[in-house]
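note to self — DONT lose this again. spent like an hour looking for the file last time. sequence + predicted structure for the chain T wanted, 172 res
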Amino acid sequence: MSEPSSKSEYSGAALRSFIVALSESQATIDKLLADAGVDNIDPEAWYDYDWAVSFFYKIETLLGKAALTEVGRSMIEAAIYPPEIDNIHALLSGLGYWFALNARGPDVGEITCEFEDECTALIDNSARGPCSFNVGIIQGACARYGITPLIEHGNEGCKDDGAPTCLYRVSW
């Protein structure tokens, strides 16, 4: 697990996922990095969490929600998992643990998952960051097992609008 930190940080390895998703356009990647004031994102480094969240919102502003959803999808599809993560239930249940490996410090939020039945999960995501990115992560998790999910956003509010959490009902 990640080491304790007194400040909120985000893993460079996870942050670099945008490069995989946008690999068709080096010019776009270069512009995003330049606008963020960096030449590159070091996969071994830890970055200020608020800066990382603002970077993801910048991708959404510049390229749209669909592009940021693809970044989230690419992140989870490219991740390496231990052998015990061998089905959709194990992967969705492990999203919170996986998030904790890539974000550390106070007030970064968390992800929990409960199953309503064999083909329905309720995901509660209080991790700070864009909703469309989190939808992409859920889509990517399901795609690893050949599943195209129906993802319904709860009516309790959205983090993009200031709510403390986004609730997702994922069915397949």
